[in-house]
Amino acid sequence: xxxxxxxxxxxxxxxxxxxxxxxxxxxxxxxxxxxxxxxxxxxxxxxxxxxxxxxxxxxxxxxxxxxxxxxxxxxxxxxxxxxxxxxxxxxxxxxxxxxxxxxxxxxxxxxxxxxxxxxxxx
Length: 122
Fold this sequence. Notes:
About 0% of the residues lie in helices and about 50% in strands. The relative contact order is 0.32. By secondary structure, it is mainly β. The strands form two sheets. Strands 2, 4, 5, 6, 9, 10 and 11 form a seven-stranded mixed β-sheet that branches. It has a four-stranded antiparallel β-sheet with strand order 1-3-8-7, with no helix packed on it. The protein is globular. It starts with a strand and ends with a strand. The protein has strands spanning about 5, 10-15, 20-25, 35-40, 45-50, 60, 70-75, 80-85, 90-100, 110, 115-120.
């Protein structure tokens, strides 16, 4: 069992930066791929980024590649999403999630955090 607690998001101007964190409970955190998803009004939940448990490899959605950075600290049971050069279209509720394998598909994630609002103003 893994429980995920996401940090508070916030309001930021376009071009600004924000870092989200997601703290996990449970001794098996290091064996899970950790992902971030986002859900904007009127849209489906969208994969954003993921980091593998096995080799630390990362994968990003094209929409955030080069602007967002995902990282993990297994000693702290925490995964981070650093978001740079934010755009209004990045506005969404962001969720962290844990999966047994590297995947972009939400149904394959076993555990989810509570979600946090990120709003980017133009």
